[in-house]
Each structure stands twice: as structure tokens, then as C-alpha cells.
Write a structure and sequence with these properties.
Length: 173
């Protein structure tokens, strides 16, 4: 999101392998010792989608508040952490033969839902790239890296996103 918006920033890497996220210093930034965290002015913000929504407000990546498009925007932005990520976890657990938590829809159904908007336009919203594509696109890219299978329209969508300089920078091959 920072790259898409062309915002000046410093990227500080925290090594999960070395467990640096559990350090006392990092826990002061994130109470659960997780990533990412944005330090902005005097404020520290965690939860990736909250960070993206905040950065996007007032830019071309966010529709105007209190409009019908804004509701669709919230819908897709929250779809990534609320539906796509849990379904990806479910698919992973199933592949390991582990029990799956109740109430999580199957990954196929969650992925099929993207096909309706993507059959009509290149992005999730009719108006072009938005935060919804940043958060769902990043989650899909992580899923593909973990081996999930997606249909040709979703693969083409991910390819379109990765052709953008900001995505290419965030996900170098
Ligand atoms: N809901 C959180 C999830 C954060 C999360 O799970 N981060 C992972 C890395 S992608 C993490 O920090 N894992 C290390 C840990 O939990 O110890 C968000 O979207 O920011």
C-alpha cells in the first residue's frame, strides 16, 4: 500500500525466524507480537487492513465515504481477513488431515465469489484499483506461494496486480 501510494517510508524488517517479533520492544508496538505495524507520526497502528484503509483514505484507492461504492469497498476489504484467510487456513488444515474450525466456508466457494466482479471489470471495484485489491491481492499471492489452486480468471487478476511496479516491488520474484 505504501508503494502504491508512493509514500515516503522506511521498511524495518523483523525476523520471524529469529523470533524478533516476540521481543519486548516489538510487543510495545503490537500487543500480540505480530507483523505488520505502521509507525506514523506519534501513532502506532497494527492490523494490516486497518493500516491500508487508513493510508488509502482521501486517495484514489478509496471511494468517498457514505456512498454505495464505499459499502462494497468495505465488503471486499474485510473479505480478505474475514473470509479468504480463514478459508486458506481451512484448506491447509484439511491438506494435513487436521480438524478444521467450524463455520469456515470452503476455499473453492470463497474464491468463486471473486469471479463475479472480475468478469465485469479488471479490479474488485468498477472504478479501478482500490485497497480491496491490495489486501485481497496480497492474500492471494501468499496463498499461491503456499500452493493453493485458483481458476484462470483469478490467476489473470493476480498477474495484472503483479505487473504493477508497487506489487512487483513488494513481491520480488
Ligand atoms: N490479523 C493480523 C495478522 C497478523 C499476522 O498473523 N502476522 C504474522 C505474519 S504475516 C505474524 O506476525 N506471525 C508471527 C507470530 O504470530 O508470531 C494482520 O492482518 O495484521
Amino acid at each position: 500500500m505504501l508503494e502504491e501510494l508512493g509514500l515516503d517510508h522506511e521498511l524495518v524488517l523483523v525476523s520471524l525466524e529469529r523470533g524478533e517479533q516476540r521481543s519486548e520492544a516489538h510487543r510495545r508496538r503490537h500487543p500480540l507480537g505480530q507483523l505488520p505495524v505502521l509507525e506514523k507520526d506519534e501513532q502506532t497502528v497494527f492490523e494490516s487492513v486497518a493500516i491500508c484503509l487508513d493510508l488509502a483514505d482521501g486517495t484514489a484507492l478509496a471511494p468517498e465515504p457514505a456512498t454505495p461504492l464505499r459499502a462494497t469497498y468495505y465488503q471486499w476489504c474485510l473479505y480478505a481477513p474475514g473470509s479468504l484467510e480463514p478459508a486458506m487456513l481451512r484448506a491447509y488444515l484439511e491438506s494435513k488431515g487436521a480438524p478444521v474450525p467450524p463455520g469456515v466456508p470452503p476455499l473453492d466457494a470463497v474464491l468463486d465469489t471473486f469471479e463475479r466482479p472480475l468478469s465485469r471489470h479488471d479490479h474488485l471495484l468498477p472504478t479501478g484499483l482500490s485497497t480491496a485489491d491490495v489486501v485481497n491481492g496480497c492474500t492471494l499471492i501468499h496463498g499461491l506461494q503456499m500452493g493453493i489452486e485458483v481458476s484462470p480468471p483469478i490467476r489473470a487478476y493476480v498477474r495484472r496486480l503483479l505487473a504493477r511496479p508497487a506489487f512487483a516491488k513488494a513481491f520480488p520474484v
